[in-house]
Amino acid sequence: MTDLIKQDYRDGVLTLTIDRPDKLNALTNAMYTRLADLLFAADENDEIGVVIVTGGPNCFTSGNDLVDFLQEPPTHLDSPAFRLMRAVTHLRKPLIAAVCGAAIGIGTTLLLHCDQVLVTRNAKLRTPFVNLGLCPEFGASLLLPRRLGQARAARLLLLGDSLDGSEAVAWGLANEAFDDGEQCLAAAAKIAQRFLAMPQQALRQSRQLMTQAGMAELQATLREENLLFIQRLNTVEAKTALNALLNRSTDKNPAKGTQP
After folding, report:
1. Which chain regions cross the lipid bilayer (predicted)?
2. Going from the N-terminus, what domains does the chain have, and what CATH number goes with each?
3. CA 35-13-186 angle, 5° bins
């Protein structure tokens, strides 16, 4: 599974690409582990100044691979998906997301931790946690209401509504929307170069000032969300919803085993 996360390093920019198009870039535990390992390593590598995360020009990620997820669900705070969250929130370097197409579940909540988010107009941002009998993750229960207000956050986290790329920009979840994936990826590369051209120590210290004030509250929220997420997985509601979704995906979707 490690080859499903491609890494490309060029002149100070590390691009991490989720590369599983036949499954709509659905994430397995092995892929979460690989992403976390690469981010932890990037944080310690002085040659890397900026990280871009993408799924390529057609799809960001459809969320968890349900087959893998149900076979090996998270059971403790060091589970692969939670470890990825820790790697992202502790990253000291600018993180850019280039989001083309679907960004479901963690594909949307990850964006709350990125310094710049670029999307295609046909992007689909959705957080269907409650519909699946689960609860928000990646600090979304704290960060989304703060960014969007309670009513808009409820449309995403409670009702599970979707946003396209243009709506994501209008709501403040993305910086700019593009007509196609190649434009989106090119724009991410240009912003990365802008970051690299800046005085690096000043950039990182300024970024730290922007994030450190709320870090303790964010980490406490992550812990609370993740513990509740583990508990929710053992409820009848979640088991019923997840198995029903898996059955529907298997019947209708060639990328079976992914979130909707």
Report:
1. 95-112
2. 2-179+210-252 (3.90.226.10)
3. 100
Whole-number Cα distances in Å, 63 to 29, 115, 127, 138, 147? 12, 21, 9, 13, 22
Residue that the structure tokens 């979840």 belong to: 173
CB 24 within 8 A of CB 69: no
Helical segments of 136-256, H only: 140-148, 150-157, 165-171, 181-196, 200-212, 215-233, 236-252
Q: Does the global pTM surpass 0.90?
A: yes
Measured distance CA(139)–CA(203) in Å, rounded: 24
Specify the amino acid at residue 113: H
| pLDDT tens per residue, range 121-142 | 999 999 999 999 999 999 999 9
Task: Identify residue 117 by its one-letter amino acid code.
Answer: V
